[in-house]
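Rather than argue in generalities, we reproduce a single protein record, letters for residues, whole numbers for local backbone shapes, just as it appears below:
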Amino acid sequence: MTIPTLISEYQNKVTVTKLKKMYSTLTNAYSLYLVDNNSTGRLERTEADAVKAFEVFKPYLKLSRDCGTDTGESCGIYTGVYKRKNGADKGSDGASLASYSDKTYYKAALSDGSTIWLRGSGSDRFNIDIMYDVNGSNPPNQWGYDLFEFLVTDEKVYPNGMPDTQTENFDDHCAPENSEGYGCTAWVIYKGNLDYLKCNDLTWEDSGC
């Protein structure tokens, strides 16, 4: 194997490890929260509800910087626009993809170099949206490469991309070459690889290329 290939494989393993660890942390934290609370209740996309969302998980996160609802730039948080999985910086409608620098997100940097954003989901199904960047502000700042999403219901934390859970399923929102990459999280956690970056004909029933 060539040096670039070895580096890429190593980086992928790091991504898988960190993403699985974060999923475990979030799941355990939310389980403990639910011991004393029925749920978070419906949280909207407001600054106040972003604070409430963060308080659920804060005791279980190893923080290096608590940035609050500040834009994040002064705290070293990436404030640019994350790219689609295929590297495009705009959606199919020509509109720019979202950045996570506004005050409806609570932001923090973690001790392992990763960063996390939390906000109220404002949806009927989910209470909290969680964005997690495995390598912080370092590139590529791209969905499915270093940025991944978790969704929180009354009952549990879901990695985005799970089939039949009203998340953005893998087959439509990760596998296709032109997909946004929003639905890649569950694949990485349950399949243990990033093979959707290597081949475009995967389905959730597969285990890799």
